[in-house]
């Protein structure tokens, strides 16, 4: 119950931000944290991701399956994460572990990039996250419609 209340409060708080345009990385990170579970030590990695989303320079979400995602908090800022066309994540025999494995930013730029250590791993409630994102989009559309109606008068 408490988690649902926190998620609803975060969604309501971010709804105002959503009407001004695209959510910032810090606003998205707040939304993702509201839908993250307790930290875990590791997760299974099968060699490729279904997708990933940067959440600023110190966090990202990775999808291992369409319905399974993880919030990775990094030990510090990760250079060029916000602009990376691709990433790689180290693993040991198909396990990505907190405080051991690293995120590597790929793409053009400096050759000697420093890998970014994964500080913590949290499972994401993908269904609830998608529902909140949908609510934010709908709130944005409703706000635009209300603004348009007010302008037409």
From TrEMBL:
InterPro entries: DUF6491. Keywords: Signal. Residues 1-20 form the signal peptide. Pfam families: DUF6491. This is DUF6491 family protein.
């Amino acid at each position: 119950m408490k988690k649902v209340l926190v998620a609803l409060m975060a969604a309501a708080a971010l709804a105002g931000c959503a009407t001004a345009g695209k959510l910032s990385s810090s606003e998205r990170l707040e939304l993702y944290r509201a839908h993250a579970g307790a930290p875990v030590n590791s997760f299974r990695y099968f060699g490729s991701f279904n997708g990933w989303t940067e959440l600023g320079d110190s966090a990202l979400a990775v999808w291992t399956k369409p319905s399974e995602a993880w919030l990775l908090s990094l030990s510090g800022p990760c250079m060029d994460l916000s602009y990376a066309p691709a990433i790689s994540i180290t693993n040991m025999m198909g396990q990505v572990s907190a405080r051991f494995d690293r995120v590597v930013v790929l793409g053009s730029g400096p050759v000697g990039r420093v890998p970014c250590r994964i500080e913590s791993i949290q499972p994401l409630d993908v269904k609830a996250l998608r529902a909140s994102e949908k609510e934010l989009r709908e709130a944005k559309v409703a706000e635009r419609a209300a603004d348009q109606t007010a302008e037409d008068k």
